[in-house]
Design goal:
alpha+beta, YaeB-like fold, 5-stranded mixed sheet, globular
C-alpha cells in the first residue's frame, strides 16, 4: 500500500481539524498501523489505529480502487 492516493471527505477534514490530527498522522496510521486493520461497522470500511504519544488515532477508511483510499472520519482516543 506504499503507492496510495488518500482522499479525505469534508467530514474527515473537519474532524481532523477539531481533533488536532494532521494529514501526516493519518498517512502514518494507514501505512504503518500498530496492529492489523480492524473491520468497520458499515460496508467495506476498515480502521487503521496508530498511537502518537498519549493520543491514539483511528482512521476509518475504505479502499475504492487499488491504491485509492477514501478517509471518512478520524477518531482520537486519549490514553493515560
Amino acid at each position: 500500500m506504499r503507492s496510495m492516493r488518500v482522499i479525505f471527505t469534508k467530514h474527515a477534514l473537519r474532524r481532523m481539524k477539531e481533533r488536532n490530527v494532521s494529514a501526516k498522522e493519518v498517512h502514518e496510521a494507514l501505512l504503518n498501523p500498530d496492529r492489523p486493520y480492524e473491520l468497520g461497522k458499515i460496508g467495506d470500511e476498515e480502521i487503521a489505529v496508530k498511537r502518537f504519544g498519549r493520543k491514539e488515532v483511528r482512521v476509518v477508511f475504505e479502499e475504492k480502487k487499488a491504491g485509492e483510499l477514501i478517509v471518512y472520519t478520524v477518531i482520537v482516543k486519549w490514553l493515560r
